[in-house]
Amino acid sequence: MDGFLLSRADRTVHATGTRRFFDDVPSASQALRRGEATLVVGALPFSPHRPVVLAQPEEVDVTDGPWQGPEDPGELPAVRISAEVPLPRVHVERVRRLVDRLSFGETKKVVAARRVVLEADEPLDPLALAARMIERHPDAATFALDLSAAGERFWGHSLVGASPELLVSRRGSTVTCRPLAGTAARRADPEEDRRAGEELLASAKNLAEHGYVVDWIRSRLAPLCSELDVPGTPELVATPDVWHLASPITGTLRDGIDALTLAWTLHPTPALAGTPREAALDLISRFEEDRRFFGGTVGWCDAEGDGDWIVAIRCAELSSDCRRAVAWAGGGIVADSDPVAELDETTAKLRTLLGALGVETAPDAG
Ligand SMILES: C=C(O[C@@H]1C=C(C(=O)O)C=C[C@H]1O)C(=O)O
């Protein structure tokens, strides 16, 4: 696909064509500051050491409300799972090993992720998939963008997803974050569903997982803000597939740090990495293959420094022929995690993407 789409309930940024690519965050931020670019769109990968996708687009369309895609996006092609990496039982084993490490080491939390490889009968149009995701997940931030600028491994690839998690947003001197961490699958029965949410809100394990993320964001934002409002306890939010613990954080920025630099400062949070962050990133690099743009961040930043950056989860990377897709899901592991429940949590999270493609996932073992 050409360009970049970020559709949220209140606003859509749709950009096409490229005037200029940037190699890193400081050069993009500098071009905005100097007035050489009015808007930068793109994505940062999960690993802070890998190439970014940051571009000044040729044309930009900013509209109120969610993206109004094509009148009739048509049917999506039939899609099936061709591989799971690692196999579900190997993911369970991995989590078991991580739990052992967490019980004895200095690391308190690490996020373990797995991938599902999908094959489509016909090419899967990234924008048609995005339109379907907007329909199914009206409260999420739906994105679709070309990843070619990240190098040969990504030529012609695109990333499509519907994320419930805001990494950071800036409007003038106001900075907002809404980290999510702590998850429970939704239930078909309304009473069981309500109970699953309440149990999540009272779960010491999930509150601890969540607390690490909030502490990280507080520690990164505090030096940049004259005021910072961090709720003492998280609230419950729902997607059609899962419950999450969420903390709406608001601050007043001291100086003109732009939204892109804020994203770079915060990313990846312990919601996707773990705590302490460097030790968790090291463990992830030893236990998993490169996450590419899964767990990264997707967004835009304008010349005033305003912008929105969304955590790239509930997403898939589409190959250049659009017949293959890789979807990821992960979850925070702490010393008292149950490995089978952690597998189920990733399955519930995968439903956001797989459900939009009409692919069935295994029912919850819980
Ligand atoms: C890693 C994912 O989600 C993240 C991990 C969560 C958790 O561990 O509870 C919750 C929301 C996200 O921050 C994912 O969706 O793949």
TrEMBL record:
<protein>
    <submittedName>
        <fullName>Isochorismate synthase</fullName>
        <ecNumber>5.4.4.2</ecNumber>
    </submittedName>
</protein>
<keyword id="KW-0413">Isomerase</keyword>
